[in-house]
Structure formats: structure tokens, C-alpha cells
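As a warm-up, study this chain.
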Amino acid sequence: MRKFFYFIAALTIGLASCSKKNVNPGDDTTGPTKTGSTLDLIKDSVYLYAQQTYYWNTSLPTYDKFNPRSFTGSSDANALSKEVDALSQYAINPKTNKPYEYDEDSPGQAKYSFIDQGAVAGSIGGTNGDFGFAPFWPSTNDLRVKYVYPGSPADAQGIKRGYQIIKINDKTDLAATDANVSFLIQAYAYSNTINMTLRRPDNTTFDVSLSVANYNVNPVITSKVFDLGGGKKVGYMVFNSFTQLSNAQPKIDAAFSTFQAANITDLVIDLRYNGGGAVETAQYLSNLMAPESAFGTPMFSYVFNQTMATGKATILKNQVRKDNSGRLYNYFDAFDYTAATNTENFEKQSLGSLATLNNIFFIVTGSTASASELTINNLLPKRNVKLIGNTTYGKPVGFFAMNINKYQLYIPQFETKNSAGNGGYYAGMQPGSADYAGKYAADDVSKDFGDPDEQLLKYALNYVKQGTFDVASPKVQSLSTQRLFSADESHALGIKLDARKFKGMVVDHPQSKK
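Now compare it with the structure written out below.
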């Protein structure tokens, strides 16, 4: 079993003094000096880690040309974020002629890379510090709650998915304008308190006042079995975050034990708001859904850059961890980064697997990212997989957490490819396309998870019953008379509202096993 961890040791000042031959492979240029402020040395280290471990490191300019110490900002963290954004724009995807890390909503900002001060570690570890809900507009004048985490401040106040938000901090004009999108993001993602008035489906209203709090994340928001008659039974699970396996496994096992006992014939995994997380948990979930014939065969491979694959990423010696006795020791530099060594196989779990499934449906949106997409990609060569919803985020790359002083640097360090050698879904996975069978449709936030009349779930249930996705047009519980947003509009808006949400797949190390 894998053990997820984060590195704990700060880098020394000596990290910033590399010989000129180590600054950029093949370049003869002057590297950073040993002198400078702590922030200067951190900026140097960000560049040097990218220069050796960034997946597209050969596209980066030399240290002198990039000049990491030139980046400034309103705070140290802001200056470092600007540096990371700049580093992310050099590698160009030949399929799009834009950077691999191009962010359509925020050109010039990194789509994948970022600098952090511990929030990601807490979230993946199973602890969130927020209100515990997220909002969404299904149409211009209809703002809804799209999910609520059990045990969160929002849950404690009785807020449910599908409830309409009619006032936030005394503001009642909540139409989906650019100004209101910015207002909403600031109110629910960047504030410590929020006041709201909500409307239930029965048209009664109530007021809430929420404060940010830490709570344990249950990534399985709901699970159930639908008996459709004729021997057709569908298991349904909303999996909203790939927290580390120690946190997620008991919740996953409880759902899958129920599915096994019911002898389900088809499975729906709802990943519509799941931005990813721990790869170990994606592997575990993939194993539970794999056919028995897959066990012992490749699931996916990690592909690293040539600097790492040829053992030249010497900077990794600066990343250390503690053993059980508290002794610090080097870790990353001891491993083989060749593709042949970094292939993960399907493995039978003690819980067993759902051996006989007709179809696996994944419900997805633009908020579905990274470890979620990895799970889907793992199963494509092994199962009848169908996607329902709109195009996923598009993140076939992942990273390790690199400690630099009090910060953690996250930059793509590997790409994953499934057993058929397929990956590279930088533009996302589009349901109903040539590559991904299924149904392209807008999200439906008017009903709670697991309601058989919720549109995206309804598509899956109808396919199991009748072999077709076609269903009647959705009826939305809304006072708005405006049309629902299209799938494309829903996709774009979802990405904007999720701007602050973590999207990634984080590993301890492909070769670290306990």
C-alpha cells in the first residue's frame, strides 16, 4: 500500500548556488549567486526546480534571460506566483500553438503550476478550511448551491444542493454578469464570513451566517442503488475529492460493499466537481472498477522529462524527509525515473472488484480534473466507459510537492498514459466525441445528488433501461424564465467559479511502497 506524505524540510541557502553547467541543460551561462535576500534565494530555487524537474524544462530560457529575482508583487507569495506563471508560458503545445498551461479564462496565468503554503496538503489529507459549499448559475438569474460537504459549516446550517441563493451579503442582484462572478468568487472563496438568504424547493426561505472552519472531508457525498427492473441495477456514487487513501478508503469501501451486495449491473461515478488529489486513491478506485482480467496488467505509466529520466536532476537531493526515528535523509534522488520503471499495474484489492459491469458512466464537467481524468483514462481500455456532462478540465500531468523554505512548489513533473499508451488530453475529455463515448450536456444543479430526475444522472439511468441517452427536456426549479445555459456556457462558467479550487494529482513517489 502507498503512503502519502509531504516533505517537511526547508531548503538551505546553498540550494541557490549551482554551477554554470547546471543552470540549463546544454547552456553555458552564469547561474545565481550565493548572496541575496531570503526571497531572492527562494525565487532562484523556484527557477532551478523548474529547470530540472518541470515536464517541459527544455523550453525554459536560461537563468540570466529569465531573471527570477526581477519578479515583484504585493506580497512575497504574489511575487512568487508571478514567477511561476511566467515559467508556465514557454512550452507550446503544437496542437494548439498555445502554451500547454494556457488558461482560457486567465491568459498568462498558469493552468497547472502554482505556489502554496500548506493549504493543498491539508485538503488532500482530508481537512478543508472553508464554508463547505460551492455555488453555480444554471441560467442568468438563477444562482444555486451545487454541492455541500457533510460536516461543513454549510451542512450545519441546513444548506442543500439545489437550494437557490437569493441574497449574499445584502446584495440581491445576483445575475451572472462578469462583475457578479467576481463578487461571488470574492464572497465565497476569499472571505472568512458570508451571509446569505436561500430558497428551498418548497419556496420557503431562510437566512444563514457562515464562518470559515476546518472540517474532515467525506469525499463520498452520497451513494445509492437504483433497481430499474428486469435485473438491471445501477450503483451511483458522488465522489467529490481524491483525498489521501487513509481518509477516502473507508467511505469508498462502504459504497462499493453495498454495490457488491446488490449485484449491480452498471455503475455511475459522479465526478462533476472533483478537481483531483491523491493518485493513490485514484489507483484504488480504478482497481475496484477493473475487470478481473486486468489484474497484473498495466494500469498507467508515469513519463518524466529527460533530465529526470537520465538521473541528472541533481537538485532533488535537497528534498528530504524524516524517517521513523526523526532522522532527515535524501529521498527523491534515489529513484529511477525511466518510463519502464514507473508503470503501475491493476491489483486486486481485499474488497474485491465489480467484476461484471455492462457500463461505467462518469458524470463530468469543466470542474472534473487531474486524478479524476486519470481514473477515467485508466479504465478506458478495460471497460465500456461513457462520459455524461461537458468537457473536463484537461490535466494529464501531475506533480510532487517541492518544499522551498515555507512554500510548496507544484509544477508538472510527469504525464500519465494508460495501458494503450493514450494520454495528452490537455483540451479535456469531451463526452459524445470520437474519443469519449457518451452524452454532451449542461450541468443540472436544480436537484440533489441521487435524484433520478436530475438530468445528468437521468441520462445514465435511461441508457441502462433503453439503450439511449435521449430523455425529455429538464424541468428546473427556478423562478427565472430565462433559458438554461448551454453545455458550453455551463462549462466556461464552472471553470471561472472554480478558479481557487485545487485541481491536481499529487503522488508521494511512483516507487515508494510500504
